[in-house]
Each structure stands twice: as C-alpha cells, then as structure tokens.
Amino acid sequence: MVATARSARRTARREQRRQQLIDATMKCIARKGMGSTTLSDVASEAGLSQGIVNLHFESKDNLLTETLRHLADEYKAQFNKTYEKSGPGPAEKLLALIQLDLRPSICDRRKVAVWFAFWGEVQSRPTYRKICDERDQYYDDIVESLAGDIIADGGYEGVTAESVAIMLTSITNGFWLSYLISPKSFDRHKAMGAVLEYLCNIFPHHFSR
After folding, report:
1. Which of 103, 71, 78, 75 is CA-nearest to residue 175?
2. What is the pLDDT of residues 140-189, one digit of tens each?
3. Distance separating alpha carbons of residues 196 and 96, to the nearest angstrom
4. DSSP secondary structure string, 66-93?
5. Is there a contact between 6 and 94 (Cβ–Cβ < 8 Å)?
6. pLDDT exceeds cutoff 80 at 2
7. Which is it for the CA torsion 7, 13, 19, 24, positive or negative?
C-alpha cells in the first residue's frame, strides 16, 4: 500500500514536471519562434535545470513533438466535450463547435502562435504532419457529417457537406491568423457574426441572424 502511494506520487510529480515544461515550451515558441527556442530557454522559462528537461524529454525534437501532441489532445478533448454536450440537432452542434474555435481557451494568442509554428514545419517533419493531419481529419469528418445531416433535413440543393466543412475550416484558420497578427483589433463577436451570416445564407431554415 505504501509503495503504491509512493509510486502514485512519483507519477504525479513526473506528469506535473512534463506539463510544466510543455507550458514553458509554448511560451518560448510564441515569443521567440520554434527555430530560436532552445532547451536552455525552456528550462529557464520553467524555472528548472536543463538536466530536468533532458531527463523528461531527452531531446528538443521529443519536447516539441510532445508539445504538439499535447495541443492536439487538449483541442480534441474540448471538441468532444462540446460535441457531446451541445444539441440536440446537428445545427446546434455545428454552431457550438464553431463557437468553440473562437473561445478564449482555444483562440488564445500563445496557442495560436504555436499552432502556426508547427504548421509551418509539417512539410519537413513527418511526425508533425501526422499529428496535424489526424487532428484536422477528425474535425473535418465530424463537421462534414453534421453539415450532411443539415442538408438532408432541409432538402438543401447546390451545396455539399464537403464544401461546407472546407469553408468553415478555412474561415476558422483565417480568424486565428487575424487574431495572431492583430490581437487588439480582432473582435470575437464580429467573427462569430460573420460565420453565422454564412450559415444563414446556405442553411436558412436552420440558422437565423
């Protein structure tokens, strides 16, 4: 029993340290960029020794990969929670998922900067590409499925579920980029209003201004 408790405490401390280092990595990337971020920078930001960074991640590449995986897992968890709690219809679920992408916990300038930093590296980093592609495909599949249900329910013609999913993804990425570049002038309410206007135009029986 005592040994089990000690093991649990060690595991908790290990996870706490890893999360501390991942948070520090995101801060460094957002401030300095991925290429300029060093293990020494991360250790300093976290208030730990570089030896601790090496102990937990062994290399910068491992640390960066785990940072990206953490971001993807965090997003997926909030995405799933929003999907499950919203509804009951596909229109309500779709609107809730779009609102999620503009929520401060997701549309956070530091996180957005880190996302774009990793997206800029996917061409030369197969591991990053795999993580990003899995995240994007999961999102797109659900959004496309919801759009398909709305189209079927409303008998809409001249629009496909795939085109709606592509458009909504492009809009979200554009909003994130706008927020990254001009955080002071970015207005979440106006951004949401623009998305709602698009949905009203293609799905007038399901969305209203």
Report:
1. 103
2. 999 999 999 999 999 999 999 999 999 999 999 999 999 999 999 999 99
3. 11
4. HHHHHHHHHHHHHHHHHHHHS-SSHHHH
5. no
6. no
7. negative
